[in-house]
Write a structure and sequence with these properties.
Elements: H1 4-42, H2 45-52, H3 57-71, H4 74-86, H5 92-105, H6 107-114, H7 121-134, H8 138-164, H9 173-181, H10 183-197, H11 200-212, H12 218-231, H13 234-240, H14 245-267, H15 269-282, H16 287-306, H17 310-320, H18 338-342, H19 344-375, H20 378-406, H21 412-447, H22 454-480, H23 483-512, H24 518-547
Helix pairs in contact: 1-8, 3-4, 3-5, 4-5, 4-13, 4-14, 5-14, 5-16, 5-17, 6-11, 6-16, 7-8, 9-10, 9-12, 10-12, 11-12, 11-16, 12-14, 13-14, 14-16, 14-17, 15-16, 19-20, 19-21, 19-22, 20-21, 21-24, 22-23, 22-24, 23-24
C-alpha cells in the first residue's frame, strides 16, 4: 500500500515535470510566434531577401544573419535556403554564405535569454494579447504577435527554471565528473537533445539554466554546446530528402560546416575555455550570459575560420554528391541590367543568347516527354518537369529584362528585334506548358488504367516524333538564322495539321462505333491538340527567322 507521504512526493515530481515541460513548450511556442510576427510584419520581402541580397558570399552571410535574427530560427533559414536551392533560385555558393550567417544569427536568442528578463514575461504576454485580440489593424496585430511571442519566451524560461529548481537538492557531482572526463558524452547529449527538440535555442536555453544553477561545469557545458551545433543540422538534412542534388549539397554543407567547426574547437578546447573564462571575469558576466557568449564566440569564430574555404566546401560536396544522369544542368540567366542604359544593341544580344538556352530546354524536355510516353519511366517525366521549371524561370527573367529595355529609346531595327524576342519568349514558354500537359495526360492514363490500342499508340508516337522534329528544326533555324531550315518547319507543320485532322476524324468514328470511352476520348483529343499547338509555336519561331 502506498503511503500518503510517498504519494505526495510522486505528485511533487509530476508537478515539477509538468512545469518544466510546460515551460519548455511555452518557450518553443514563444520562439515560433515571435518569428511569425516578425515575418508577418515584414511581409513577402523576407523571402525575396534570400534571392536578391546574396550576390556574393559576404552579402550571403549578412543576409543569413539578418534573416535568422528576424525569424528567430536558424533551422527555418537553412530549410528555406535548401528550398530555394531546390527551386534553383539560389546557387550552392550563395547558399553556403546564408548558412554561415544563420549560424551567427541563432546566437541572438541565447543573448536575449542571457539577460535576466523573465520578470517581463507576463506583462509582455498581456500587452501582446491585447494587441492581437482587441486591435483590428493588421500592422498592430503583427506587433502584438511579436510582443506575445517574446513574453511567452521569457515566461517559458521562468517556468522551466521553477520546474527544475527543487532538483537542486540532488547531487549532480557524478554528472559533472562524467562530462568532465568524457566530453564525447556531452557532445552526444547536446546532439540528441537538439535533434529531439528540433531547436538549438531550446537546448542552449536549458543549458544556460543548468549552468546558472551550477548543475554543470563549464567543461561539460561547452561539450553540450558542441553537440547542439551538430544536432541543429538534422532539420536541413530532413528538408533535403527527396530534393534536388544541389539541395542535398546545401544540407551537406551545413553538416560539414558545423562538424568541422566542432572539431576545430574541440582540438583547441583549452584555449577556447580560457578565453570564455577570461571574458566572464573581465566583463563580470552572469552564468547564462557566459554560455551565450561561448555560443556566440564559437559560431562567429567558425565563420571567420571557414569563410575563406567556401569554394573548397562547395567542391567537396559536389564531389561527394555527384549529379545523376537525370539531373538538369541548370544555368544562370546572364542578363546584366547595367547594359540597358549603355547599349540597347548589346542588351538585345544578351536576351537573344539566353532565349536560345531557354529554347534548348524546351527541345530537350519534349524529347523526354516522348520517352516517358514510350516507356512510362518516371525519371523521364521528373527530368522533363525540371526543364519546364527552368523554362519558366528563363521566361520570367528575360521578359522582365526586355520590359525594362522597352522604356529606353530604340531604333527601328532594335524595336523590331525587341518585339520578336518578347513574342518568341512566350512561344517557347507555351511549348513548355504543352509538354507538361502531355506528361500530365500520361500520368492520368496510368492512374486510371487507361490503355490505348496499339494502333492509337503508334499514331500518337508518330505525331510526337514529327512534332519533335518540327521544334528542333525551328530552334536550329533560330540559332543559325537559316531561312531554308525555317521553310522546312512550315512544311512539317502542314503535315502535323493534316495528321491532327486525320486522327480527329478517326477518333469520331471510334466514338460512333463505341470503340472509345469518355476518359479515352479526353486523353485522345487533348494529346493531339497539345502536339498541334507545339507545331504552331514552332512555326512562329520559324516565321521570326524568315522576317529577320
Amino acid at each position: 500500500m502506498i503511503s500518503k507521504k510517498g504519494l505526495s512526493n510522486t505528485l511533487s515530481v509530476q508537478d515539477m515535470l509538468f512545469q518544466f515541460l510546460g515551460g519548455l513548450g511555452l518557450f518553443l511556442f514563444g520562439i515560433k510566434y515571435l518569428g511569425e510576427g516578425l515575418q508577418n510584419s515584414a511581409g513577402d520581402r523576407l523571402r525575396n531577401i534570400l534571392d536578391s541580397l546574396t550576390t556574393n558570399p559576404y552579402t550571403g552571410v549578412l543576409t543569413g544573419l539578418f534573416f535568422t535574427i528576424l525569424i528567430q530560427s536558424s533551422s527555418a533559414t537553412t530549410v528555406m535556403t535548401v528550398g530555394l536551392v531546390n527551386a534553383r533560385m539560389l546557387t550552392l555558393r550563395q547558399a553556403v554564405g546564408i548558412i554561415m550567417g544563420a549560424n551567427i544569427g541563432t546566437t541572438f536568442t541565447t543573448f536575449i535569454i542571457g539577460f535576466d528578463a523573465a520578470a517581463f514575461g507576463l506583462p509582455l504576454l498581456a500587452v501582446g494579447g491585447f494587441f492581437v485580440f482587441f486591435i483590428r489593424s493588421y500592422k498592430y496585430i503583427s506587433i502584438g504577435r511579436i510582443l506575445f511571442g517574446l513574453g511567452a519566451l521569457f515566461f517559458g524560461i521562468q517556468l522551466k527554471a521553477s520546474g527544475i529548481e527543487p532538483l537542486q537538492v540532488l547531487d549532480f557531482k557524478n554528472l559533472n565528473d562524467h562530462l568532465n572526463d568524457q566530453p564525447f558524452l556531452g557532445i552526444a547529449i547536446g546532439t540528441l537533445a537538439t535533434m529531439f527538440m528540433q531547436s538549438s535555442s531550446a537546448t542552449v536555453g536549458i543549458l544556460q539554466q543548468m549552468f546558472s544553477m551550477d548543475w554543470i561545469h563549464l567543461n561539460g557545458a561547452l561539450a553540450v554546446l558542441f553537440g547542439e551545433n551538430i544536432g541543429t543540422t538534422i532539420t536541413a538534412v530532413i528538408a533535403a530528402i527527396g530534393a534536388s542534388q544541389n539541395a542535398k549539397r546545401a544540407a551537406l554543407v551545413h553538416v560539414l560546416f558545423n562538424v568541422i567547426g566542432t572539431v576545430i574547437f574541440f582540438i583547441f578546447f583549452i584555449p577556447y575555455k580560457s578565453i570564455i573564462e577570461w571574458f566572464a571575469r573581465t566583463m563580470n558576466l552572469q552564468p547564462a550570459m557566459e554560455i551565450a557568449f561561448a555560443h556566440g564566440f564559437f559560431n562567429v569564430a567558425s565563420v571567420i575560420i571557414l569563410f575563406p574555404f567556401i569554394s573548397l566546401l562547395v567542391y567537396a560536396v559536389t564531389r561527394l554528391i555527384r549529379d545523376d544522369e537525370w539531373t538538369v544542368d541548370t544555368q544562370t540567366v546572364k542578363l546584366d541590367e547595367k547594359v540597358i542604359n549603355s547599349s540597347a544593341e548589346f542588351a538585345l544580344h544578351q536576351a537573344r543568347q539566353e532565349l536560345l538556352k531557354m529554347a534548348a530546354y524546351s527541345r530537350d524536355g519534349l524529347r523526354l516527354a516522348l520517352l516517358f510516353f514510350q516507356t512510362r519511366k518516371n525519371r523521364y517525366a521528373d527530368t522533363a518537369m525540371q526543364y519546364e521549371e527552368e523554362i519558366n524561370r528563363f521566361d520570367r527573367q528575360i521578359t522582365k529584362f526586355l520590359v525594362k529595355l522597352s522604356i529606353h529609346s530604340l531604333s527601328k531595327n532594335e524595336s523590331t528585334e525587341h518585339t520578336m524576342l518578347l513574342n518568341l519568349c512566350k512561344d517557347i514558354e507555351r511549348v513548355g506548358d504543352h509538354m507538361k500537359n502531355m506528361i500530365d495526360l500520361v500520368c492520368f492514363m496510368a492512374r486510371n488504367n487507361i490503355k490505348l490500342s496499339e494502333v492509337t499508340s503508334r499514331d500518337f508516337e508518330n505525331m510526337m516524333i514529327l512534332t519533335q522534329s518540327c521544334l528542333e528544326k525551328a530552334i536550329k533555324a533560330l540559332e543559325t538564322n537559316n531561312k531554308f531550315m525555317a521553310e522546312e518547319v512550315l512544311s512539317i507543320e502542314d503535315d502535323i495539321d493534316e495528321m491532327e485532322r486525320t486522327l480527329r476524324k478517326k477518333h469520331i468514328q471510334d466514338i460512333n462505333n463505341n470503340l472509345s470511352t469518355g476518359q479515352e476520348s479526353v486523353v485522345y483529343v487533348d494529346f493531339i491538340s497539345n502536339l498541334e499547338r507545339i507545331g504552331d509555336h514552332s512555326v512562329n519561331i520559324a516565321e521570326a527567322v524568315l522576317e529577320r
